[in-house]
Write a structure and sequence with these properties.
Blueprint lengths: L5 E6 L26 H6 L2 E8 L11 E3 L4 E3 L7 H21 L4 E3 L3 H10 L2 E8 L9 H8 L2 E5 L5 E2 L2 E2 L4 E2 L11 H13 L2 E2 L6 H10 L5 E5 L13 H9 L3 E4 L3 H4 L11 H15 L4 E3 L18 H10 L4 H19 L7
Parallel strand pairs: 1-2, 2-6, 5-6, 6-7, 7-11, 12-13, 13-14
Antiparallel strand pairs: 3-4, 4-10, 8-9
The structure holds zinc ion.
Length: about 350
C-alpha cells in the first residue's frame, strides 16, 4: 500500500474515458494501456486531481514535428472553432459526470478544499474540473458562469495555439518561451472574471508575454499546473527563472510535469529517463521557489513519462527516489498533496472553503 497521498495537478484521462469515446477505457477497471484509471490511481496513492477538459483540433495535423540539429519544433497549431470546442468540452464534462455517478461513491466531484479533504478522509477519489484552453467560451462569459456552477475551478486561457484570449506557446526546444504577443483585451477580461469567480488561472501553455500579462493583472497566486524549469530543459513549455521567481513571490505553485522531454536537459522524448535525474530537476525547482511551491502536475495520459514510474501506480517510485535524495516525510507530503490545497485555499475565495 502506498504511504504518500497524492493530489495531482494535471491529467488528460478524460480524453480516453469510455464515457467520452467509444475507443476509450473503463476508468473503474485496471488497464495496462495509458497511465491512469481508478485502480492504478489507488495503487499509486492518488486521492484526487485536476482533470482537464480539452478540445482537440478538427483535423489532426500531419508532419507537424520538425526535428533539427539541436532539437525540435512543432508547427504552431491552428485555432479551434469555438462552437466545435464547446461541443467537445460539454461532452467531456458530461462524460466525467456520468463516470462519477457510475462509480457509486468511489469518485466525487470536488468544488472546494473541504470537499477534497472530506473525500481523502472517506477514501473517495476527488475530481476537480479544469479546462485547458478556453476556446469554448464566448466573449460574454455566460458559458464560463455555467461551467463554474457545474464545478469548474481551474482554467488555462490558452493551450499551445492561438485563441481570442491570447497565444499559447508553440512546442519547441531549445527556445525561449517568449514566442509572441501576450493576452488580448478580452483575455485580460477573462483573467478578471476568473479572479472574481475564484477560478484558478493556469499559466501552463501560455507564452512568456501572456504569463506577465496575467502576473500584472491577477490578484491570485500564480500557478502553472504542469511545467518544469527552463534553466534545466530549455523547452518553450518550461518556465524561466524569472517566471519561477514570480510564482514564488506570489506564493503560487508549479506542478512538476513528468513529461520526459520537458525534464531532460537534452529535451529528448526518451522514456529511459532515470528517476535520479527527475529528482534533481525537482530539487532545482525547490531551491528556486521553496518546498511550499512545488507540487505534482503529472500530465498522466498526456505525456511520455519515465519508465521508472510507468503509470499512476508507479508514483511511489518517484517518492522513493526523492526520499533517497533527502526529501523527508513532510517535504514529500507538501509536494504530493498539501501545496495544491494551500493554493486552492488562497484562490477559490468565493467557494465554501473561504
Ligand atoms: Zn498540457
Amino acid at each position: 500500500m502506498a504511504e504518500i497521498d497524492v493530489f495531482d495537478g494535471h491529467n488528460d484521462a478524460v480524453q480516453f474515458m469510455g464515457e467520452y469515446t467509444s475507443a476509450g477505457r473503463d476508468f473503474l477497471v485496471r488497464s495496462e494501456s495509458g497511465h491512469l484509471d481508478l485502480p492504478r490511481a489507488r495503487e499509486g496513492g492518488m486521492a484526487g486531481g485536476l482533470f482537464a477538459l480539452h478540445a482537440g483540433p478538427e483535423r489532426q495535423p500531419e508532419n507537424d514535428l520538425i526535428i533539427n540539429e539541436n532539437g525540435y519544433e512543432v508547427i504552431y497549431a491552428e485555432a479551434v472553432d469555438p462552437a466545435y470546442a464547446r461541443r467537445q468540452i460539454e461532452a467531456q464534462r458530461l462524460a466525467l459526470e456520468s463516470l462519477i455517478r457510475r462509480s457509486a461513491g468511489q469518485m466525487r466531484l470536488a468544488i472546494d478544499v473541504e470537499e477534497i479533504r472530506a473525500a481523502r478522509a472517506d477514501g473517495a477519489f476527488a475530481v476537480v474540473l479544469h479546462m485547458e484552453g478556453a476556446e469554448a467560451l464566448d466573449g460574454g462569459f455566460d458559458y464560463l458562469h455555467r461551467l463554474y456552477a457545474a464545478g469548474l475551478r481551474s482554467l488555462g486561457p490558452v493551450w499551445s495555439r492561438p485563441n481570442i484570449f491570447g497565444y499559447g506557446v508553440p512546442f519547441a526546444y531549445p527556445k525561449s518561451p517568449d514566442t509572441g504577443p501576450g493576452l488580448t483585451e478580452i483575455g485580460k477580461e477573462l483573467v478578471r472574471t476568473c479572479n472574481r469567480l475564484g477560478i484558478m488561472i493556469d499559466l501552463a501553455h501560455l507564452n512568456e508575454r501572456g504569463f506577465w500579462d496575467v502576473a500584472a493583472l491577477s490578484d491570485a497566486p500564480l500557478v502553472a499546473t504542469h511545467a518544469c524549469a527552463h534553466a534545466i530543459c530549455p523547452s518553450t513549455r518550461n518556465l524561466t527563472d524569472r517566471q519561477l521567481d514570480a510564482i514564488r513571490d506570489t506564493d503560487g505553485v508549479i506542478g512538476f510535469n513528468l513529461s520526459v522531454n520537458d525534464i531532460r536537459a537534452d529535451g529528448d522524448l526518451n522514456e529511459d529517463t532515470p528517476l535520479d535525474l527527475v529528482v534533481r530537476h525537482i530539487e532545482y525547482l525547490v531551491n528556486r521557489v521553496g518546498e511550499d511551491r512545488v507540487a505534482l502536475g503529472s500530465d498522466l495520459d498526456g505525456a511520455v513519462i519515465p519508465r521508472g514510474i510507468k503509470d499512476a501506480s508507479g508514483l511511489p517510485h518517484l517518492f522513493e527516489a526523492m526520499r533517497k535524495r533527502g526529501f523527508d516525510g513532510q517535504s514529500l507530503s507538501k509536494f504530493a498533496f498539501d501545496n495544491w490545497l494551500r493554493v486552492f485555499e488562497l484562490t477559490w475565495k468565493n467557494s465554501r472553503s473561504s
